[in-house]
Structure formats: C-alpha cells, structure tokens
Amino acid sequence: MHPTPWREAWSDALYGPDGFFLRERPADHFRTSVAASPVFATAVRRLAGLVDDALGRPDPFDVVDVGAGRGELLSSLPDVPVRWRLTGVELAASPGGPLGWSSSVPPVEGLLFSNEWLDDVPLDVLFDGRVVEVSASGQESLGGPASAEALEWAARWWPQGRRVEVGLARDQAWAAAVGQVRRGLAVAVDYGHVLGDRGTWGDRRPTLTGWLRGRPVHPVPDGSCDITAHVALDSLQGRLVSQQEALGVLGIRSEPPPRSLADTDPRGYLSLLASAASATELMDRRGLGAYGWVVVPVGIDDPLVGSPG
Ligand SMILES: C[S@@+](CC[C@H](N)C(=O)[O-])C[C@H]1O[C@@H](n2cnc3c(N)ncnc32)[C@H](O)[C@@H]1O
Description:
Blueprint: E1 4-5, H1 6-15, H2 20-23, H3 33-36, H4 38-54, E2 61-66, H5 72-75, E3 84-89, E4 100-102, E5 108-115, E6 124-127, E7 130-134, E8 140-145, H6 148-157, E9 163-166, H7 168-178, E10 181-190, E11 192-193, H8 195-199, E12 209-212, E13 215-217, E14 226-228, E15 231-232, E16 239-242, H9 243-249, H10 261-264, H11 266-283, E17 292-298
Parallel strand pairs: 2-3, 2-5, 3-4, 5-10, 11-15
Antiparallel strand pairs: 1-7, 6-7, 6-9, 7-8, 10-17, 12-13, 12-14, 16-17
Bound molecules: S-adenosylmethionine.
S-adenosylmethionine binds at residues 21, 26, 32, 34-35, 66-69, 72, 89-92, 115-117, 120-121.
C-alpha cells in the first residue's frame, strides 16, 4: 500500500473489508465503563428514565446506543419498560436477539447515547500544515498541504504544537448523530482533552495509538489492532461534564454504606458495598471518572444539570 492520509488508512484498517471492528469484539480488547461495572448501565437506565419523564413517556421511547459493540450496554439496562425501543447502531453485524440493530443512526425520540465511539472515528493528522500519511507497516511520511477546513479547525482548536489531530471528522459525525434526535437527549462519553491540555503538549506526538488485547501497541493500519486517538471534547457540540459529575447527578455513590446497616440488613449492606466498590472505579478522577460526557438536550431541559441526586 502506498502511503495514504491517516484518516483513509485508519478507516480501511478498522471498517474496511475484514476491518478490525467488523471482525473483533471490542470487549476482548479493552475494558470500557460498560464492561467495568453494571453500575454504569444502572446510571444510563436512570438517565433514560429522566428523559422519558421529560418527554411525557412517549410510545415508543427510543434508547439508541451508537458504537454499540455487541449490544452489551443495551442488554444490561435493568427494568426496561415494554414501551422502550432499544437500538444498537454499529458497523459490525448484529449479535442477534431482541435488540434493534442498524448501521446508521435512526430518528430518535428519547436518549441517544454513545460510549467510546468517537475515539474510534478516524481523523486527519497534520504536521506543519501538511497531511501526515502512513504506510501499511505504520511508517509515516509527509503528504500535501491540508485542506482549508482542516487548517481552520487546527487554528481554532489546536493552535500550539506542530502535530495536530484534527477533530473535524468527529465534530461532524457527532453533529450528524445529534441531528437525528427529534426530542430528547444526546450524550457522547469518551476520553479526551480540551484546549488547555493541548496547549501544554508542545511538539511531542499526541495521542494516536494502537490497542490490542488490553495493551497499547504501535498504530499499524493493517487491520491487526484498534487505532484510536483521544477526543477533542471541547470542539464537539454540547456541554461538557466529567463522568464523575454526571454519575453523581444520577445518584451513583462511591462511599461505602454505613457499617451499622450490616447488623440490620446484611444482604443489603453487601450489595451496597459491592456497588460502591464498582462506582469507585467509574468515578475515579485518575481513570474513568475523568472521561467527558458531552451533553445535548433537544426540546427538554438538561437532566444532568442539578445537584447530585
Ligand atoms: C471502542 S468500541 C466501544 C464499544 C461499546 N460502546 C463499549 O463502550 O464497550 C467502538 C465501537 O464503535 C463502532 N463504530 C465506529 N464507528 C461507527 C459508526 N460510524 N457507526 C456505528 N458504529 C461505529 C465500532 O465498530 C466499535 O464497535
């Protein structure tokens, strides 16, 4: 393969014929919040309930998961009313079973949610205003000048540093998904950075990396590994809150229950203790708790604004 711009090579490697994500199960390669703890599905279920109430409980009420993997999040939502219509949006094949499945985002009246989708949306990489190209073996070279819109994005969102991961393709993919929400809420959860972080990075290679079986690897765009780059969260449409804050507003607690409960309700105590332990992992500011939730309400008040409930 001749060197091609990162965005094309990355796209073929993950989503082309026999691409990594069409072949592999994401959960075999990384531990997302979905896999880390059932508490995450409990929080998403609560959020969907708030949106359902705000919309006056329509029939059907949509819960759409973009980049749904094998439907793990939707399948683990507790106490789903029969009125709710659950749909996974994926480029990979349907896992079968009762979930709706689509390769594109349908119109949504309800909650559109995505966890760790956007970091896997391929982007352009620039160096000194030129497009960085890559060979099938992962060798980089410099191509032609970047497009005017890529340069404009870089000037606005990544003004310092010679190497830029241009978030424009993610901004556009997210805006298109949000555009499908007729009424309700759109939420994108991912790891990422904001302008202030990028300003401190200088010229060192930022975040593009490969990922395989739980470990970072050299990003070789031959379909052998995931390729990912952190998300420029502040250039996406929406309000940004941390996962720690969002889960707090949804009533997730990482503090252990009072010890006295063990005497009166030992089973209840143990169950709350287990939930608190997994909530700790989801809300830890040095890990999953630092992930960003980008929130866009459509025709309703933002249910994630408010005192921790
Ligand atoms: C890192 S996995 C996340 C899986 C799951 N959401 C989780 O949190 O465990 C990213 C998923 O996004 C999917 N994906 C990427 N681009 C997509 C697109 N344009 N439409 C639908 N799915 C997409 C990939 O196929 C992959 O399964």
